[in-house]
Amino acid sequence: MATVLAPPDQKKADVESQRVDPVDPPQAYEKKLTSDAGSSSDHMGLSDNSNVPKLSYLQLFWFFFYNFGLFAWGGPVAQIALIKEKLVVQDRWITLPRFQRVFSVYQILPGPEAAELCMFFGCLSAGRIGGIIAGIAFVLPGFVLMLLASYLYSLAGFENKYFNASFRALQPIVAAMILRATHKIADHSVRKHDTKKTDPFLIMAAICTAINMALRINIFISLGLYGVIYTFIARRLWIPAATLFILQYVGFALYVVFRGVPSPVSLALGIAKTPSLINLFVLGLVAGTLSFGGAYTAIPFVQVEAVLMGAWLPQSVFIDGIAIGNILPAPLVIFATFVGFQGAYLDGSIGNAFAGAVVITLGMFFPCFLFTIAGHELLEKLVRNKFLASFFDGLCGAVIGVIAVIAMQILKASVEGALDRVKEKPLGEAITATAQVGPAAVLYMLALVVLYKFTNKYTALLLVIMGAVAGQFLFLD
């Protein structure tokens, strides 16, 4: 078949007609996207529309290290919002619809989504090696800080009143960061690509997923199920969609009747009965492979292996590691570094402790690097597949329900404090700890107001610094 080439002048005119002025504000860019989506056959927004700069390896490392690694405060939700704001809304590497497709795909892959997104953009800029460099640049600051925090914890622990006072003030501030970031992500995840209007079915997917979490239905079931249900809804197949919706609760009711409510211990495989280096690596590897949707699914697995079945890590120490991971600029799965350090430190060897932290971290991040880098081309095809587009839309809507519930759980824990610590204290100290709920709630509200009022990238860092200082006045006896 012969190919007909357009005259040079005509091709230039076509390019100019599609070009978006880089000085246009994000609102004009969004309007342009909407106009293009409405007039093109690609109304699902699956075309590339890429504007990706080609960076050297050194430039790429510094770009992701400085823009995301150093400022990845607030956990995975805040990190994803930061990446989207910088690379999609401001720098416009890719279009917003394409970002939503990519984000949806990474929701069903093991590993932290923020690190995977950095690797994805690194691949776009400099190939697979660029993806590895971008991922390392994003993870490195948090890993180093967690190593330092683990070492300091082994020296002083949270019994140090000065450190504990600052940390108590940081918890509600981090909770506010996570809730604000949840709002940012949800703002685009429940909208139709063609009209930009809110899709009530995606809102229902988010709400029902949150309800399922309250019923202790596995989040993997909810994510996959609402992806399939929304696929039927998008094609107006109402009967199959309604049937699946009803069957999920019928199946859960039957399970509870015959098997009872699922127990957290049922997740344990017994692969880390002792915290040897090989066991810690395997624990990280399995937890990383099972961490679909990020750290929120890795946390319960590591807990049952290390705390419940292996019993080599106290519950209070495990919770401390989760809390530290929430305030560091790193993927939340970096809590595994803390677990590996404390577990390997049982023999009193600091060298073995650092080795344990390294091997469990390598195991935790290996699956996400493998799937993202090795499967980059396949993922690119997936995010362009129109047949799968509505499935990913439903999945992304359901994810909003998951992260909203997690945000509320973190809020509750950050305001009320660690209950197990209160139970072990005398009455006077328990009353003092209870009195801290009021100031913690006030800090949360103030942080939320600041986050909604100011959008500078340094806002989160300043809040953390100010919170650490305020804790010395609010929570120090």
UniProtKB/TrEMBL annotation:
Indicate the principal place this protein occupies in or around the cell: membrane
* Localization, UniProt: Cell membrane
Q: Which domain of life is it from?
A: Eukaryota
Compositional bias (Basic and acidic residues): 9-22
> Region Disordered: start and end of each range?
1-45
Q: Which GO terms describe its cellular component?
A: plasma membrane
Residues that span the membrane, as ranges: 60-83, 129-153, 201-225, 237-258, 278-302, 322-341, 353-375, 387-411, 431-452, 458-476
As one GO molecular function, the record gives: chromate transmembrane transporter activity
Membrane-topology descriptor: Multi-pass membrane protein
* Keywords from the named record: Cell membrane, Membrane, Transmembrane, Transmembrane helix
Q: Where is the composition biased (Polar residues)?
A: 36-45
Q: Which InterPro entries match?
A: Chr_Tranpt_l_chain (IPR014047), CHR_Transporter (IPR052518), Chromate_transpt (IPR003370)
Family statement: Belongs to the chromate ion transporter (CHR) (TC 2.A.51) family.
Q: Which NCBIfam families match?
A: 2A51
What is the name of this protein? Chromate transporter
